[in-house]
């Protein structure tokens, strides 16, 4: 049984279809697929949402199919990218409804590719509870069904989850109830009820990532406003959005040019050998002390390989000499000295700390001065991200994908890395940031700054930030513009809550602990459950997404393949069939 029929469940089904001819020789197999939302699209990509909402990747960079770069035991089954399937221009940012149809195509193809005797049964219901002995059949209780479904094996592919409020959010929500205010908690923006956000009134928005971009669109174009070139023409129905965050800036724009020439030879400083070494440490490892220096070295290598080999006129030494010294350099100070001597222009040097916190130490004398300053920052980011003269930025993006694929093996490394990756590599389309600039010039959007804090006092919410000392703004509405944290302990999903209080183990960050080899759920003693698996962002094996850019290895594809093979081998043994190869 697969609980969750969105992209992750669909990807698993595709891998079952690819591996079944080799691994399953039983007389028949019934696959029960459980999800209240449509198979393929699932909740996030369903058709029933605004057509104004886009994907944040070019259509050519979205695939649900494996290729030779995926390190897996199963066979490659190639298929079309989104732009090939939909006939879109490769650089289009498709709306989510189109992506939902593409995912339905992948699902239908996976079902059609299953061998004879393998049947899929779709149940449009919620799974409420999972029970059953370790060595026996599992019972899955569904909403509105008096008896459980019986399954020899269960895979949880639940995707993004709703969550109970954390203590701070709960206190703000209680204050809102008492004082007649509006508090919208973290949520998938398309599911939020935005009707309480009144035209012309200030709204505090905490979060400057992709959830904010969706909110921005729904409260402007979604209320009848329109963009005329670089000018926004209001409808009069928009609230005034005061947005800030820890960084105080939006996620970096998607890169707006194609890769040409040689790719950096990755991995170089953070590959399987380094991960093996970290996992073998008897006293464990610390992310900042032991892992982050390897990440920095890897991303720096990708950046400088591109700069030296494609833009040698902006360097002072030959690549071969620089590479040798870079490989031997130890510590930040030694690397910085090497780079300063070899790369004359500071704009060509990779500074991850400044990229992560661009407003650190910067103060503005007034709120209006900061509006001008941040617009200039966004414009500069857009210019750079659409200029192939700075193609080392795209090399860093490829480096980030390579690093993520390696770090998945380490399990729970904390939430910081995932946020940093999204901020640099998974930001909004350039056109969205140009719309943001137009909204700012129109006065519909106002920037609060970095280190944004929100207090509840005097019957209102009040926001301030480090960037503009002395400035604050009061509002009767606060929106937490981000997805809920994927913690098992606060998940509203009844099935996961029951696992949380049962034998299943969780990480210090509250993620469901699974075996990185195949996704089996682990108990408190580290024992893998023989019949229960889990894949997705609520586990310590979380990946950047269920679909990915072609030719980049796709760690989710690798996980899907490993889980499919383990499940098929288990079921083949159970059925008395013959399992060939490794499960």
UniProtKB/TrEMBL annotation:
PANTHER family: BLR0577 PROTEIN. The lineage of its organism: Bacteria, Bacillati, Actinomycetota, Actinomycetes, Kitasatosporales. Residues 2-160 form the FAD-dependent urate hydroxylase HpyO/Asp monooxygenase CreE-like FAD/NAD(P)-binding domain. It comes from the Bacteria. This is Adenylate cyclase. Pfam families: NAD_binding_9.
């Amino acid at each position: 049984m697969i609980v969750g029929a969105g992209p992750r469940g669909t990807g698993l089904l595709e891998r079952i279809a690819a591996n079944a001819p080799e691994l399953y020789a039983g007389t028949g197999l019934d696959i029960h697929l459980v999800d209240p939302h449509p198979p393929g699209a699932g909740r996030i990509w369903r058709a029933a949402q605004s057509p104004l909402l886009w994907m944040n990747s070019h259509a050519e960079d979205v695939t649900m199919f494996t290729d030779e770069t995926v390190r897996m035991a199963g066979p490659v089954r190639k298929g079309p990218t989104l732009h090939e399937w939909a006939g879109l221009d490769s650089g289009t940012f498709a709306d989510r409804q189109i992506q939902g149809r593409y995912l339905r195509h992948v699902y239908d193809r996976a079902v059609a590719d299953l061998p004879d005797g393998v049947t899929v049964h779709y149940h449009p219901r919620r799974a409420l509870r999972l029970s059953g002995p370790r060595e026996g059949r599992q019972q899955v209780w569904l909403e509105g069904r008096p008896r459980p479904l019986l399954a020899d094996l269960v895979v949880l592919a639940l995707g993004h989850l709703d969550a109970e409020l954390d203590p701070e959010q709960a206190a703000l929500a209680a204050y809102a109830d008492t004082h007649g205010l509006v508090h919208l908690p973290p949520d998938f923006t398309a599911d939020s009820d935005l009707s309480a956000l009144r035209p012309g009134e200030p709204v505090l928005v905490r979060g400057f990532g992709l959830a904010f971009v969706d909110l921005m669109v729904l409260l402007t174009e979604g209320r009848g406003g329109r963009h005329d070139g670089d000018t926004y023409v209001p409808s009069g129905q928009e609230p005034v959005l005061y947005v800030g965050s820890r960084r105080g800036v939006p996620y970096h724009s998607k890169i707006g040019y194609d890769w040409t020439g040689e790719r950096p030879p990755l991995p170089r400083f953070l590959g399987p050998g380094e991960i093996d070494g970290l996992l073998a440490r008897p006293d464990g490892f610390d992310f900042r002390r032991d892992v982050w220096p390897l990440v920095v070295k890897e991303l720096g290598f990708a950046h400088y390989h591109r700069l030296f080999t494609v833009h040698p006129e902006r360097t002072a030494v030959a690549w071969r000499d620089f590479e040798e010294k870079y490989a031997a350099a130890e510590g930040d100070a030694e690397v910085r000295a090497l780079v300063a001597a070899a790369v004359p222009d500071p704009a060509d040097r990779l500074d991850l700390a400044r990229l992560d916190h661009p407003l650190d130490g910067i103060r503005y004398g007034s709120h209006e001065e900061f509006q001008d300053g941040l617009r200039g920052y966004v414009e500069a980011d857009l210019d750079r991200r659409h200029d192939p003269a700075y193609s080392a930025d795209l090399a860093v993006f490829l480096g980030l994908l390579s690093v993520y694929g390696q770090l998945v093996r380490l399990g729970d490394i904390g939430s910081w890395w995932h946020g940093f990756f999204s901020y640099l590599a998974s930001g909004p389309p350039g056109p969205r940031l140009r719309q943001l600039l137009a909204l700012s010039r129109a006065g519909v959007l106002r920037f609060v700054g970095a280190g944004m804090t929100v207090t509840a006092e005097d019957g209102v919410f009040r926001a301030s930030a480090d960037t503009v000392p002395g400035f604050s703004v009061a509002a009767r509405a606060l929106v937490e513009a981000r997805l809920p944290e994927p913690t098992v302990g606060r998940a509203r999903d009844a099935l996961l809550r029951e696992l949380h209080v049962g034998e299943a183990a969780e990480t210090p960050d509250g993620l469901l602990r699974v075996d990185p080899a195949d996704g089996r759920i682990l108990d408190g003693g580290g024992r893998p459950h023989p019949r229960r698996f889990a894949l997705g962002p609520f586990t310590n094996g979380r990946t950047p997404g269920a679909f990915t850019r072609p030719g980049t290895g796709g760690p989710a594809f690798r996980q899907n393949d490993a889980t499919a093979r383990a499940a098929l081998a288990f079921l083949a043994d159970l059925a008395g069939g013959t399992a060939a190869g490794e499960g």
